[in-house]
Design brief:
The protein is mostly helical and about 140 residues long. It has six helices and two strands, in the order αβαααααβ. The protein has a two-stranded parallel ribbon with strand order 1-2. The longest helix has 26 residues.
């Protein structure tokens, strides 16, 4: 939680001083793919939070792995190169995306135990890499 709060505070201070995030120029098709993927990730994150709130931690872990974890990598592999966001990202931005997949898989591993308290404590794993990336980069 501390990391999320620090990043939140950094975000507020960055907003006050103007948008200091690095602009990443992607081909239009890749930007569209990225937007669709980010919206799907938000829907998945919300569904995971609902499951955890309902006490369905194992199900939350399964959803996290399938939709956000390492198992979810390569969704854009079949698209033409100009529509694949990862191929056009700076390496550090791409690395944050990879970190997010790894973190979601770690959350899934913890949730698979069925321990609600440990699962709740691991929730920041799901959003930490997202926050770090969105705090550092923008596409428009």
């Amino acid at each position: 939680m501390t990391t999320a709060l620090v990043l939140g505070a950094l975000s507020l201070s960055a907003s006050a001083a103007g948008d200091a995030r690095q602009l990443v120029t992607l081909p239009a098709a890749a930007q569209d793919s990225l937007r669709e993927e980010m919206l799907a990730n938000l829907r998945a994150l919300n569904a995971i939070l609902v499951l955890v709130a309902e006490g369905k931690v194992r199900e939350a872990g399964t959803l996290a792995e399938e939709s956000l974890g390492l198992s979810a990598m390569g969704k854009n592999r079949s698209l033409p190169l100009e529509a694949r966001p990862g191929a056009h990202m700076p390496p550090a931005m791409h690395g944050l995306g990879m970190d997010g997949h790894k973190a979601a898989s770690e959350f899934a591993r913890i949730a698979a135990s069925g321990d609600r308290d440990k699962t709740v404590a691991a929730l920041p794993l799901l959003s930490g890499a997202c926050v770090a990336c969105h705090h550092s980069y923008r596409v428009r």
